[in-house]
Amino acid sequence: MHILIAAIGKLRAGPEATLANDYLHRAKSVGRNLGFSGPDITELEAAKNLPPDALQKRESGALLKSARDCERLIVLDETGDNASSEKFAAMLSNMRDEGVGGAAFLIGGADGHGDDIKTRAARTLSFGAATWPHMLVRVMLAEQLYRAMTILSGHPYHRS
After folding, report:
1. What's the whole-model pTM score?
2. Domain 2-153 fold
3. Which residue in 47, 90, 112, 133 is deepest, having the highest Cβ count within 10 Å?
């Protein structure tokens, strides 16, 4: 199963990019033996100078277009389910075992996701009730993808 991260905004060179790339590389290495490819990341230009509704609509369209080859859409949003790492890993494993060819994790811009994209999502996930900068959400998602791969492989990285 291919994993894609589609995100609004570009992560500039710096500690966040270094950390995200490290976790993505680790996830790819471990996931390859488990039937996963990726995670790959697609960064989309943030729209500017638009009212929030128009901004969300434009960004939603760009995210959906980038994920058009993925059968499952998972939206990251502060109102989503706060799944444990074990449940996150089980979600990935279940999708793979169901024969899902691709799953896309969608990270919106500063104004979040519009209702149009939330209704199309198979699942909405949250990293807690706090509001996180979308650049940090990438790092957190990359780490959780790596953690999920280590859980599924029985690697001792995760401790319950």
Report:
1. 0.93
2. Alpha/beta knot (3.40.1280)
3. 112
